[in-house]
Amino acid sequence: MKDVFIAVRRTDNVVMMIINKYIVEQIAKIESSISMINLWQKLPSDLEYECFLLAIYAAICHQMTTEFIVAKLRSISKEKFTAGELAKFTEADFYNLVKDYPQQDRLRVKERTELLTDFCKVLVEQFGGSMTGLLKISDYDAEKIEQNLCKAKAFGEDSVGKKRNMLIHALHFQKLANIKNMENANPAIDYHLIRMSLRQGRLDLDNGLLNQKILNNEPITFEEDVTIRTKVAELMKQGAAIAQKGIPEYNWNEFHLARSFCVRGEPKCQTSENPVKDVLKFTFEGKCPFFDVCKKRKEYKLEPNFKSSFY
Known about the structure:
By secondary structure, the chain is mainly alpha-helical. The protein folds into two domains: about 5-35 and about 200-280, no CATH class; about 45-175, Endonuclease III, domain 1 (Orthogonal Bundle), CATH 1.10.340. It has 14 helices and five strands. A three-stranded antiparallel β-sheet has the order 1-2-4. The protein has a two-stranded antiparallel sheet with strand order 3-5. A hairpin with a 6-residue loop joins strand 1 and strand 2.
């Protein structure tokens, strides 16, 4: 079958893209056979602690690994791990928490401390100092939760909403909160998903200058970043509908496959060990589950170069 393309063009020629509908469909068909592994054998007794931990992680997670941040946050005593206490965190406090991160250029202590303390102050001043308070005031409604999260810089500055969407997804599929209207949830698009979409061929950049920027790891503009992520979000919505999955689950699956198989540099298209065996269930055959339909455009060594506090 020949590739079917959907052209997406800007009249000012800033960004031009082509969505490969055929590959979107093939990826989605494979996705329909991939399922999440339940993260909890039983729900934790302290739901507020877990909700708050997820929110803090989401607020400061950009350009650092999930495993590292979560472990560091859990190392803080429960007595100190409250919005009131973390609102008083200093840059020195934060540096001491993350100083052993292997990529020192990604610490960005001042930026993360500001995002952390601002969010905690918003919780204290407007939601009784807890995530439970924010959820209750939002009536556990996805759209209202998103609106209230946007009162904090960490969640409100990104027009595409990666962090806030990711948090709402996680609260929902980890069953930490019974969130309503998830059928209208938006995807959480980060650099792993962009990198994988470009390599697979789901997304083509019909713009020589922008394509060269990405291939040469040159910085892209804010507008280019937003446009790329918006189109990847569209691909995710199309794929989820075809796979008959909700956006949170489809997003979760793709995120883990992208960060574990379609890694930066040289992707693990074929590998003897399944790197997602603890989080996803599918028949592993020594290769990425998308291997047979992916265009394997390995010239995209990295995702687009855009430095932000969004993702």
